Amino acid sequence: MEIWINPACSKCRSALTLLDAEGAAYTVRRYLEDVPTADEIRDVLGRLGLEPWDITRTQEADAKELDLKDRARWPRDDSGREAWIAALAAHPKLIQRPIITADDGTAVVARTEEAVRDALGR
User: Any idea of its EC number (predicted)?
Assistant: First the structure.
């Protein structure tokens, strides 16, 4: 299992604490330093069963600068999907965190204890 984290994020630190308490084997990816490629983002989205706008932190400064709330410029459908993925790859701060890729090939956005436990059970 791998967990994408930002060490400054309290939700990420909580997820790591729980993984450690449960004795889970995992690798840490500091995704702001080891930025995921567009292909890796597509893979994680497939594992999550989500779209790129579903894992975008729209309150971040980068999101406001890009005007991601402008649905005409950033459609939330197939026509805009690749632009959203490119934005996440170019601005990794926009990626929701933490994301855990489970051993069964799925993934979860692990912002709650329940989500972390769900990943552990997969």
Answer: 1.20.4.1
Which residue segment(s) compose the domain that 45 sits in? Answer: 37-94
Q: Between β-strands 2-5 and 99-101, what pairing exists: parallel, antiparallel or unpaired?
A: antiparallel
Check 1, 2, 9, 57 and give the catalytic one: 9
Instruction: Kindly tell me the burial class for residue 84, based on how many C-beta atoms sit within 10 Å of its own C-beta (0-12, 13-18, 19 or more).
Output: buried
Cβ atoms of 2 and 97 within 8 Å: the answer is no
What's the mean pLDDT in 12-33? 97
Q: Are residues 88 and 102 in the same domain?
A: no
The count of C-alpha atoms lying within 13 angstroms of the C-alpha of 64, restricted to the half-sphere facing its C-beta, is 3
Asked if residue 53 and residue 84 are part of one domain, the reply reads yes
Whole-number Å distance between alpha carbons of 121 and 31: 24
Is 12 among the catalytic positions? no
Closest by Cα among 121, 11, 96 to 45: 96
